[in-house]
Specification:
The complex is a heterodimer of chains A (365) and B (128). Chain A is of the alpha+beta class and 365 residues long. Helix content of chain A is 19%, strand content 35%. In chain A, the strands form four sheets. A six-stranded mixed β-sheet of chain A has the order 11-12-13-10-4-14. Chain A has a six-stranded antiparallel β-barrel with strand order 15-18-17-16-19-20. In chain A, strands 6-7-8-5-9 form a five-stranded antiparallel β-sheet, covered by helices on one side. In chain A, helix 2 crosses helix 7. In chain B, a hairpin with a 4-residue loop joins strand 1 and strand 2. Chain B starts with a strand and ends with a helix. The chains are: A alpha+beta (365), B alpha+beta (128).
């Protein structure tokens, strides 16, 4: 489904030697120099990511909350203004259509306003899904992805990098909250969120101002990072990636995302199917694997306990922080014991690995 | 030593009499970046042109390594697997991978391989 979409930073990426790949129909930089160096910059200083490809959908109207409580697995009614929540969109069978961040904004009554940030690969699917379930709710769905840019500023240096450039107190913004404000005089959403396991911000800014804001962040010491390190960082932090740990064929409980499924009065799309899964108990679990050797266990590779295949690798990489080969896998629940030895078949050879607790990396706060 | 010749799969070979030294090119190293793993063959293994002799993995991807010539493995750069920096930094020197005792006529064996200029042109066309 390559449509050749370009973010407002595309020309900058090319000019700076970013290696461009197609990602969900967008031309995105996978790296500028080295994935490992970019990864280390985020863990030790500040990295910048162009995440303009992420979908930004606004849900507005007197029944926005009720509508989102129908289509999301978390309790949207419980969100305070400015609060951000990780959530899932499920089909009626409990399969995952997407994982999203939903933010409640403080709108004038009776209007209610929410921002839904969705995966680039699922944007059109989710817009269509929301439209299908909109009838009966007084809400409007606006896809403002192309009108805006989005930049993630991630790492221990993020607060001091962002603070002088924004209105309001970036440092005072709690984790998983967001505010309206300005970045370099441009109207923006400033959100204390990220996908790296580090502290940081995600900024939604006007498309036309994205490059000048980006260049200012670079000049202030932020290191441009590509999708390659975004993947290694989120994997160390054990954050799921749609299409890897999550899919329509899998439910969120087996993926270890029970915290984002809140059964509540009235239910939500998929709640009956998920309640049944919960009652039966999950038969599969998402686990971490640490390999003895340095080979990388990439997605789809089979995981064995003795001669029995117990599951499949969903994502794997070489962890720059641990300097070990790590992977996530979905395996049979009865085999998912931390410390247990397993084998992963990599190109015809059985590589020993140990089941470990997730995440692989947790920042010291 | 002869001039370095290149295969389309980005291995290089250089001849010293009937001994061929084989490695991977600077272009290959640069494309891969972030090398994490290298697997080389056992001594005495016979390779035909196009046979895989090992694997190099980077954070991004795994690539098979192909012998550009025919011969028997007489030496492998064993320490390299523990120091992939030498492969990244000096792919034509300290980063050599293996040496073969050539099978057949040395001159004929590298006949179909590219010289540096042809290889540079090939890389330019591959990277766009």
């Amino acid at each position: 489904m390559s449509t050749g979409l370009k973010t407002p930073l595309y020309d900058w990426h090319v000019a700076q030697g970013g290696r461009i790949v197609d990602f969900a129909g967008w031309a995105m930089p996978v790296q500028y120099t080295s994935i490992v160096a970019e990864h280390v910059a985020v863990r030790t200083a500040t990295g910048l990511f162009d995440i303009s490809h992420m979908g930004r959908l606004w849900i507005r109207g007197p029944q926005a909350q009720a509508f989102l409580d129908r289509v999301l697995t978390t309790n949207v009614a419980a969100l305070a203004p400015g609060q951000v929540s990780y959530s899932l969109v499920c089909n009626t069978l409990g399969g995952v259509l997407d994982d999203v961040l939903v933010t409640r904004f403080d709108a004038a009554t009776p209007c209610q306003e929410y921002l839904l940030v969705v995966n680039a690969s699922n944007r059109q699917k989710i817009v269509a899904w929301l439209e299908t379930h909109r009838p009966g709710f007084d809400v409007q769905i606006d896809d403002e992805t192309l009108a805006t840019g989005m930049i993630a500023v991630q790492g221990p240096g993020a607060v001091s990098l962002v603070t002088p450039l924004v209105t309001g107190s970036a440092a005072g913004l709690a984790y998983y909250t967001a505010m309206r404000g300005q970045v370099l005089g441009q109207d923006a959403i400033i959100s204390r969120t990220g996908y790296t396991g580090e502290d940081g911000f995600e900024l939604v800014v006007p498309a036309a101002a994205t490059q000048s804001i980006w260049e200012t962040l670079v000049a202030a010491g932020g290191r441009p990072c590509g999708l390659g390190s975004r993947d290694t960082l989120r994997l160390e932090a054990a954050m799921p990636l749609y299409g890897h740990e999550l899919s329509e064929a899998g439910d969120p409980l087996s993926a270890g995302l029970g915290f984002a499924v809140k059964f509540r009065e009235g239910g939500f799309l998929g709640s009956e199917a998920l309640a049944a899964v919960k009652q039966r108990g999950v038969t599969k679990k998402r686990v971490g694997l640490q390999l003895a050797g340095r080979r990388i266990a990439r997605e789809t590779l089979p995981v064995f306990a003795g001669e029995r295949q117990i599951g499949t690798v969903t994502s794997g990489t070489f962890s720059p922080t641990l300097e070990k080969s790590i992977a996530m896998a979905v395996i049979e629940a009865d085999a998912a014991t931390p410390g247990a030895s397993v084998e992963i078949e990599i190109r015809g050879s059985r590589e020993p690995a140990t089941i470990v607790k997730l995440p692989f990396y947790k920042r010291v706060t | 030593m002869s001039d370095v010749r290149f295969a389309k799969s980005h291995e290089w070979v250089s001849l010293d009499g009937t001994i061929a030294t084989i490695g991977i090119s600077d272009f290959a190293v640069k494309s891969l970046t972030d090398l994490v793993y290298l697997e080389l063959p056992k001594l005495g293994k016979f390779l035909k042109p196009g046979d895989t002799f090992g694997v190099v993995e980077s954070v991004k991807s795994a690539s098979d390594l192909y012998s550009p010539v025919a011969g028997t493995v007489r030496e492998v750069n064993t320490p390299l697997a523990q120091d992939l920096g030498a492969l990244s930094d000096d792919p034509y020197g300290a980063g050599w991978l293996l040496k073969l005792d050539l099978e057949g006529d040395p001159a004929a064996t590298i006949d179909g391989l590219m010289d540096r200029a042809a290889y540079d042109a090939f890389c330019a066309s591959e990277s766009h």
